[in-house]
Amino acid sequence: MKIVRAKTAGFCFGVKRAVETVYKELQEEAGSGPRIYTYGPIIHNDEVVKDMEKRGVKVLRTEAELESLTEGTVIIRSHGVPEYIYKKMEEQGLTVIDATCPFVKKIHNIVQRESRAGSHIVIIGNPEHPEVQGIRGWAGDHVTVVQSEKDASDFVPNPGMKVCIVAQTTFNYNKFQDLVEIISEKSYDVSVLNTICSATKERQNEAGSIAEEVDAMIVIGDKHSSNTQKLFEICQKACKDTYYIQTLDDLDLNQLGSVETVGITAGASTPNNIIEEVQNNVRIIF
Ligand code: F3S
Predict the structure, then answer these.
(1) Statement: the pTM of the whole predicted model exceeds 0.85
(2) Of the chain's two ends, which shows fewer C-beta atoms within 10 Å, N or C?
(3) Nearest CA to ligand 1 atom 2
(4) Which helix (H) or strand (E) covers residue 235, if one does?
(5) How far is the C-alpha of 34 from the C-alpha of 23, rounded, in Å?
(6) Cα separations (Å) of 58 from 34, 37, 175?
């Protein structure tokens, strides 16, 4: 019996940095300083967010909640925020700690620069995802979000404008290439910047190859985490016995009883202790 745990399972650099920023701030303030807020849950993981709330961090879930603040420290999560949110926080006199992942910040800089230079920005990603909404908020007036083949086919470039394509960092690379191909046929002047984070690609590739070799695959991550959902899709294609769980409680260990090899991977927002707990319990039944 064998368990294969993906080396790339769990927190990526940007998420680790954002989570550590919150805990560091909590330690420094130690209950005596201004209240600490995060603008949106710091990561897509209920377990981590609940732990932070227990220690006194308050999650601001809407813009209206942010607007009601008159003091405090607000931590911006790794997904980043639109430019106007920084201005709002500044006007309200709040202390801002920016934990935007540097790779996402780089996309903000690209779209701001390219839109100022006269390009129509195309963001390939999920329009509902906070990261995409953040990028959009740096991309000027001519910006389109493309998520599907239909969106790409429907896209009409502004006459006389160059087109600059960027991607949500967690977007699937092959799908990105397909959509770029469709858009590129519509204009002569298209620049493509593949801003997909290599952490995502490496995690997806490793998960795919492990899933091909094992009898059952476990993907651990929050149900709202888009990168975990994509990992699940990739693994399910390669291994029909793929389970998507948030914590050990969601796993029916009896289902795994008859398999010989189990693969384990986890999304970018899954803490190490949850991965280890699953791994240790799967080991016990073998
Ligand atoms: Fe940053 Fe890549 Fe993670 S963009 S938040 S290191 S997936």
Answers:
(1) no
(2) N
(3) 197
(4) helix 226-238
(5) 15
(6) 12, 5, 37
Contact criterion met (CB below 8 Å) for 231 and 265:
yes
Q: Which of 131, 181, 233, 277 is catalytic?
A: 131
Q: Whose CA is nearest to atom 1 of ligand 1?
A: 14
> In order along the chain (286 residues), what is the average pLDDT of each group of 10 residues?
92 92 88 84 85 94 95 95 97 96 97 97 96 97 97 92 95 93 91 93 94 96 87 96 94 82 93 93 75
Residue 14 C-alpha to ligand 1 middle, in angstroms?
5
State the distance from the centre of ligand 1 to the C-alpha of 32, rounded, in angstroms.
32
Residue 20 half-sphere exposure toward CB, CA atoms < 13 A: 8
Helix runs in 79-191, H state only: 83-91, 102-116, 130-136, 149-154, 173-184
